[in-house]
């Protein structure tokens, strides 16, 4: 895949910079996919958990989590 632009993400808290090659005409959806695949996955599970929680709150989505060992959870969608 050829690219013609660079998306630079500066993480001031971690004092790091991420350089992501991209195409200038990427859609917002593609940028979200790139952000999640290249930036979010680099962090530890606590950050990822807080990130997803805040994202869902911002989107107005209510999440209900179940635990793996809960007797009512059979690993199948309800």
UniProtKB/TrEMBL annotation:
Protein name: Transposon Ty3-I Gag-Pol polyprotein
Taxon lineage: Eukaryota, Viridiplantae, Streptophyta, Embryophyta, Tracheophyta
